[in-house]
What does this fold into?
Amino acid sequence: MRVAALMVAVVFTSACASAEAPAASTRPAASTSARPTTATPAATATVDERTVLVQLGEHFFDPSAIKVKVGTTVTWRNNGQQTHDVHAYDGSFNSPPLGPGNTFTFTFTKPGLYRYYCIPHEGDGMIGQVQVE
Ligand SMILES: [Cu+2]
It folds into this structure.
């Protein structure tokens, strides 16, 4: 079920990227190189890509734990029906409230373990972490 949701997330992201291409451009809108790549839903997914997608749902982050290299940009996308947000416990990053379909991105420039949570749903276990190496 979650795999299907992840695939949907990638499709949505691609469609979004195309829709945001400059209208005046005469070039084909085929720039898929920056498309976020989803990680396998392991306990801690190790990802080599420069851009990683984490989806938000009710009430979880998926994948909830990822391991990335310094310089990686993580995009959180709310694929749920409720409003969620993304806040680092150490204050490294704070998203505004994210309605359904909205995204938040942050580029990790320093190694470390970044634990984060969703303010309304922290009590429901909506927490995650990014290990940056
Ligand atoms: Cu939430």
